[in-house]
Design a protein that fits this description.
- This protein is mostly helical.
- It has helices spanning 7-17, 19-34, 41-66, 73-86, 108-115, 133-138, 157-160, 170-181, 208-213, 233-243, 259-263, 269-285, 300-306, 311-328, 347-359, 377-384, 400-407, 418-427, 434-438, 463-472, and strands at 89-92, 95-98, 141-143, 145-146, 166-167, 189-190, 192-194, 250-251, 290-296, 333-340, 367-369.
- The protein has a single domain, classed as Alpha-Beta Horseshoe (pyruvate-formate lyase- activating enzyme), CATH 3.80.30.20.
- It has 20 helices and eleven strands.
- Strands 9-10-11 form a three-stranded parallel beta sheet. A two-stranded antiparallel ribbon has the order 1-2.
Amino acid sequence: MSFSRTPLQMAGDFFKEYALYFVFVILLAVIITQDSTFLNITNLSNILTQSSVRMIIALGVAGVIVTRGTDLSVGRQVGLAAVVAATMLQAVDNVYAVVNPPYPTMTTEEVDAAYDLPYTREPHPKYRGKTIPAYEMIKHSVNIHRGCFGGCAFCTISAHQGKFISCRSKESILKEVKQVMEMPDFKGYLSDLGGPSANMYGMAGRNQRACEHCKRPSCVNPEICPNLETDHTRLLEIYHAVDELPGIKKSFIGSGVRYDLLLHKSKDEKSNEAARQYTRELITRHVSGRLKVAPEHTSDRVLKLMRKPSFQQFYAFKNIFDRINREEGLRQQIIPYFISSHPGCQEEDMAELAVLTKDLDFHLEQVQDFTPTPMTVSTEAWYTGYDPYTLEPVFSAKTPKEKLAQRQFFFWYKPEARRDIERELQRIGRSDLIPKLYDNTPRRHPHAAYDPKAIGSSPETAGRQRQRREVREGGTHKKHARHENSSPKSFNPNFPANRHRRQR
């Protein structure tokens, strides 16, 4: 006996069989209603990309299910993936930070492929008709490499670009330079031909296998690694090739230069000669009136925490800079960058920085407060209050008042800042520095030769002029004694007084 099914029953069965699809269509309709960009090609591509791993697993299991078998490997794979992922997690106050391993260093071919893409070299259309200062500064510049092996404690470049240098080929660089030359407002001057550190192009370890297993965060601090190849020859070839292009009047180096690489005495005399040649060509051909370098501080104790070379190296490089300028009849300036409020830095350190830079006749403008950034040792010290390597307490200026107390010493030369600076020096027990900042016969550093008239220390044959002036003034400078009973104070609320102060 057969039973006939009503249309309603058939519709019900159809709905039960395909209910999942109906739910999917309804959800899709709701999403599209709420967000019209959902059906965008880019969005759909992202969905497929994110689902690709699950699709591969599903297809593998589908074959087993079709043949009426059982496959438990998926669960095991998921479990293994969970264990691997757990090893990359760091628990901090019930919050987990995911630390992914760094990607392998890009090859020259890979870097070229990225830079050879058809970029417009124009800002986003939404900025049309507006002036963007940052864009104006870099629109006629060319990046020649990625990565930095400096390992500065406060810098994130090695975290997001890598510790090793990835260089573009000469052909790729020249191709982009020619594109810049075709820009309508190009006048023949490249604003920058550099990278994260301008003179690291072409440098790598002599023994690459040793570099792969090396755990040093910096290849140049506390000393330059003997395995590091510091030859500037390849970089000079790039400079020469660019300068030979018709239409290039000058190619400037706007990126920071590592002068410790230029001062390094290698066992390879060819590298030493290339460094000397690079230094002279840099100063005579590629400086647009001002050469930027980054000593970052004058205190060796703070510089050690920063993983930067001693300030004495800055004096050595500046002497070379001044000598070459005198020999070539140039009047260029060297512009140093400094950081205030870095972990370990205190008001006293900034006051001494002000005195030393005044002796060099620097009226500083290119300055900044320390800014905590992820994945840096300095940020770890700033957050925890301890040096992560020694576990010694480290003072960090955190409040606006503490930061201002340090930053103000950059601008000692401004009349409106004098009263506050004098008050701060008295408060921290360093009144002895007041006459060094504000008398008419400043103490000069024995290693420094500078033009007493220039802001930024322009070199000139001013030795005789300085001698004549000192003779007129009696040839002596005022001597000021330190306050006998000046006891340094601690201004960090996180630590007991004077625990973190520098031992005198």
